[in-house]
């Protein structure tokens, strides 16, 4: 209710009206609020499906930061994606002394592609401290090239507040939208 002014005001009016109607009848007052409260609860539960929590937890469960050799480290960032088929794929970043490393997001996408999928619905990238981070420019470009609807991919910006942005907001006027139709 704190973030939904219209509903908050509606609830306040219902409570004031009921307080006047039932000044000495707490049961009547509570019964009068029941339908509104149940409807708001139903709306709130419909908006919360737990997907971001599942993705965040999957990313956090990916192997932690570690050295693979004196020249390669992995896991300082992890990522999880939700595919159009409802599967969750994870990946970790691989940092190398040369330019052959891989971002966590691209690693998760490679995992998805290996499993014969190519459409992402949601993605989250997480630093080793638990903070959600935005995909780099190369990952944004890669995601845009996967599917003609890739601009609709939701990216978790902040886990605590569940702030989300769509990929198309990060890649306005993308250079190849007209080339995304597949020919048979």
Topology:
Blueprint: H1 5-21, H2 26-47, H3 51-61, E1 66-69, E2 72-83, E3 88-96, H4 104-114, E4 120-127, E5 132-133, H5 137-146, E6 154-158, E7 163-166, H6 167-170
Parallel strand pairs: 4-6
Antiparallel strand pairs: 1-2, 2-3, 2-4, 4-5, 6-7
Helix pairs in contact: 1-2
What does this structure look like?
The protein has helices at 5-21, 26-47, 51-61, 104-114, 137-146, 167-170; strands at 66-69, 72-83, 88-96, 120-127, 132-133, 154-158, 163-166. With 184 residues, the protein is α+β, with helices and mostly antiparallel strands. The N and C termini lie far apart (50 Å). The mean pLDDT is 90.
Which characteristics define this entry?
single chain, 184 residues, alpha+beta, 7-stranded mixed β-sheet, elongated
Query: How far do the termini sit from each other?
Result: 50 Å
Main β-sheet, in a few words?
7 strands, mixed
- Summarize the helix and strand pattern as letters: HHHEEEHEEHEEH
> Any low-confidence stretches, pLDDT <50, length ≥5?
none
Mean pLDDT: 90
Count the beta strands.
Answer: 7
Class inferred from helices and paired strands = alpha+beta
- The rounded Rg comes to 23 Å
Report a brief summary of the structure.
The protein has 6 helices and 7 strands; from the N terminus they run αααβββαββαββα. It has 184 residues and is α+β, with helices and mostly antiparallel strands.
């Amino acid at each position: 209710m704190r973030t939904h002014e219209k509903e908050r005001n509606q609830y306040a009016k219902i409570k004031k009206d009921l307080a006047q109607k039932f000044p000495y009848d707490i049961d009547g007052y509570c019964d009068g609020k029941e339908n509104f409260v149940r409807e708001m609860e139903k709306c709130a539960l419909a908006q919360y499906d737990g997907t971001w929590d599942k993705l965040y937890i999957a990313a956090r469960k990916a192997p932690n930061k570690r050295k693979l050799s004196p020249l390669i480290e992995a896991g300082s960032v992890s990522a999880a994606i939700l595919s159009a088929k409802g599967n969750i794929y994870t990946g970790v970043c691989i940092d190398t002394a040369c330019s052959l490393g891989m971002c966590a997001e691209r690693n998760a996408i490679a995992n998805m592609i290996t499993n014969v999928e190519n459409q992402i619905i949601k993605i989250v990238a997480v630093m080793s401290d638990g903070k959600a981070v935005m995909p780099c420019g190369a990952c944004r470009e890669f995601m845009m090239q996967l599917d003609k609807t890739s601009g609709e991919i939701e990216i978790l910006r902040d886990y605590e507040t569940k702030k989300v942005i769509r990929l198309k907001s990060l890649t306005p006027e993308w250079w190849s939208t007209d080339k995304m139709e597949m020919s048979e």
